[in-house]
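Internal tracking record. Fields below are filled automatically when a chain is submitted to the structure queue. Please do not edit lines marked as system-generated. If the sequence contains nonstandard residues, flag them in the REMARKS field before resubmitting.
Queue: standard
Priority: normal
Entity type: single polypeptide chain
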Amino acid sequence: MRNGRQKRQIRTTFRPSGSDSPTLLSLLPACQASSNLLLPWARPLAKKSRTPAPPRKVQAPQRRVERRHPRTGKERRTLWISVAFAASGIAAIGLVVLVFALTNNNGKSSTGGGPKPVNEGKLVGLQTGPAPWNPGLDHLPDRLKPLGLSALGAEGEVVHIHQHLDIFVNGKHETVPALIGIYDGQFLTQLHTHDASGIMHVESPTKRTFDLGEFFGVWGVRLTDKCIGGYCKPKIPWTMYVNGAPYPGDPSALVLKRHQEIAFVIGKRPKTIPSTYNFGGL
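SYSTEM-GENERATED OUTPUT FOLLOWS
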C-alpha cells in the first residue's frame, strides 16, 4: 500500500475474436493446431441415434369360463324327451320318402328319363275289337313319334330286360303275336317280340324306363284303366295280375321290370293264374 492507498491490480483478459483465429493457431502447439475439436468454433458433433425400447408385452384378455353345473333329473328327462321326438320325426320323414319311392316304382316315373303318358288320341290304327289281335304293323311308323320311341337299326344294349305276357279271355289263352314292334325287317323299336311265346323284349340304346302302355301302343291295341282292346269295364270285367297278384292301378302305367309275369284275365277266370315264367337264359 502506497501513499495510503491500496494499489489495485488490473488484469487484462484476452478474448479472441473470429478474425484472430489464424494468429492463435500459429501460437498453439502443432498437436493442438491439428485438431479443432477443442476449439469453441469447431463443427457440432452428430447426434447419436437412440435405439427405441422394445415393445411391451400385452397380455391377451382371458376368457371367462363359467363352471357348468350338473343337470338336474328334470332337465335330463326333458333332454331325452326332446331327442326322442326329433328321432321319431326323422323316422317318419324317412318312412314317407320310402313309401313314395315304392309307390312310384309301380307307376310312371316322374324323372325326365321315364315314360310319358300315352295319348291314345294320337295313336293311329289302334285295335279296339275283341282278341285275338294282330301285330299292328300297318301304322307302326305313325305311332312312334307320339309314343316317344325310335326306329332302331339294331337292338339296344344299355337297357336289356324281358317280361312275359299272358292274355286270358273267358278262361281261354290268347296268343301274343310275334314281330310286334319289328317293321318288315326295316327297323325295330325298343319294345318288341320275336316269337309267339309271349316274351316281351325291352332293348334300348339309352338308359330310361318303359311302361306297359308303351308296349301296347307299339302293338296297336287299346289299353286304358277301363278298356283292353274291345273289353271295357263295367260291361266286361277284367283284371291284370303282376307276378300272380292283382294290380290295382292303371295297367298302362306299370313300369316294366326284369322277369315280370303279366297276365290279363278277361271275363271268366282260368283254372290257374300264372305267377312266374321260365325265361331260360334271358
